[in-house]
Design a protein that fits this description.
The protein is mostly beta strands and 185 residues long. Helix content is 0%, strand content 31%.
Length: 185
């Protein structure tokens, strides 16, 4: 959110009546207890009908861009302990560490994706992904995955490309024709 941005909102006292406001101020600091960032929105008050103390529900528009999110636990960890880092022969654009291996880039990661079940057995392939914002245990995937790809969130054993996997009882079932996905393998 930024100053001057238009936002849609509803006031519970006015039912489904839509209002439009303008962000006047965004606090430079989050509340340390709630981790919420106070935002002041100014809106027109024709006829003085809107009073103080009303509950407002603000709808934020991210410009229409859809975000692909996965749980941070789906990111693989390399030998240096950095999430999604690169290891040995994989090379990459990372910088060299004292051990001679590339260091993880904070905007790069690796995930295991469940591939087709040709013989009735699901297998995984490793994919490089470009990471975006992180919040609430989730990370935005900017490239490397498509909507509907199923990623491994947790595994009882180390994975490598081609490893056979079985979905857990908590896994999402594949969505019909191009929808949903992102299950908990």
């Amino acid at each position: 959110m930024k100053r001057g941005q238009k936002v849609s909102l509803q006031l519970d006292a006015f039912g489904d009546t839509p209002f439009t406001g303008t962000v006047a101020r965004v606090s430079p600091q989050a509340d340390p207890q709630s981790r919420l960032v106070p935002v002041e929105v100014v809106l027109d008050n024709p006829g003085g009908r809107i009073g103080g103390g009303l509950l407002a529900r603000v709808r934020l528009d991210n410009g229409g861009a859809e975000q692909l999110l996965v749980l941070e636990s789906a990111l693989r960890v390399d030998q240096q302990g950095a999430p999604g880092g690169l290891s040995g022969a994989q090379g990459g654009s990372g910088t060299e560490t004292d051990g001679g291996l590339p260091e993880a880039s904070p905007d790069q990661g690796r995930v295991f994706v469940v591939t087709g079940e040709a013989d009735g057995k699901a297998r995984v392939e490793e994919r490089q992904v470009r990471l975006g914002a992180r919040a609430d245990g989730q990370v935005e995937i900017l490239s490397g995955l498509r909507e509907g790809d199923r990623v491994v969130v947790r595994s009882e054993r180390p994975l490598k490309p081609g490893t056979e996997v079985r979905p857990s009882a908590l896994s999402d079932t594949p969505a019909p024709e191009g929808g949903g996905g992102g299950g908990r393998e």
